[in-house]
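The authors assume throughout that readers already know how a fold can be written as discrete tokens. What matters is that the chain and its backbone geometry are given together, residue for residue. A single example would do more here than another paragraph of explanation. For illustration, here is how one protein appears when written out as sequence plus structure tokens.
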Amino acid sequence: MIRTLGITYEHKVEHDVPLDQLMNGQYAWIWADFMAPTPEESHLLDTLFHFHPLAIEDCLHVLQRPKLDFYDDYQFMVVHSLDALTLDTVEVDLFVGHHYLVTYHHKDLPEVNSAWEKVVRRANERRIWARGPMSAAYLVIDDLVDLYFPCVFSIEDELDELEKKGSRESVEDLMNQVFDLRSRLLKLRRTIVPMRDLMYRVVNSEHIQGDKEPRAYFADIYDHLLKLTDMIEADREMTADLRDSYISLNSNRMNSIMKTLTVITTIFMPLTLIAGIYGMNFVNMPELGLKYGYFFVIGGMIVLTVAMIMWFNRRGWFK
């Protein structure tokens, strides 16, 4: 589907402008949004707008990293939207010219719809910032970045819950949750860091259309991405600390178990020796003829056990 928007020189908004009238110069600027386009509609990027073949190829192949390319009379940007549930990325391509903005994406995105509504509302209010395609591009990217925050906040909430219930679950379950969080943070980082680098190029590039005002707005997006990057790094450090804590806790538990088993084994070693000696069934064993020999041996084994337990306790083995 292709939807179009034309802003006249009188600041009027015209919806669903016919494609053959988009580039005839009667509009101050236009916005064409390609949403899940068909192959025939995608072909208009070449036949109607005459974009560079490499830029069109980047639109058709959705495995691109965020990027910024400069052509003769327009800039081509690749940015990413995030699915809040799966953290998968959805590519959004933007062609920003002097008098047009073309957006291209393979899914219906609420961020693009929100930016579309803002442009219409601000144009009707005759606000200067709504007059240019670069402003619309800013609104799209700003809404994309704003939806990164709930994804990061959600992981931080899970980290807080994980810290609170750390003593009520098994170490294995806790470790699985920590590694799941680290995996999701890595997916976020792979999206946000390239977006941060892209905004750095936009803010510091001499080729971006417009001067101070657009740059100030894009600098605000860059600040948001810096904050998101710092939050992700802090969360990754927290998960690393939790992982190390759980590994230490598991090691302490294993050491405690091994110490208990060692004490039990040590106590039974002399008892096993005594039982083995008197279980050899030799004929000439003087103690076998004693009337109360069995009780003496059992009593001696009990006394030996109690003495060893008392000695281990004084050595602090049971602490």
Observations:
- Strands lie at 2-7, 13-15, 29-35, 67-70, 74-82, 89-97, 100-105.
- The first strand starts at residue 2 and ends at 7.
- The mean pLDDT is 83.
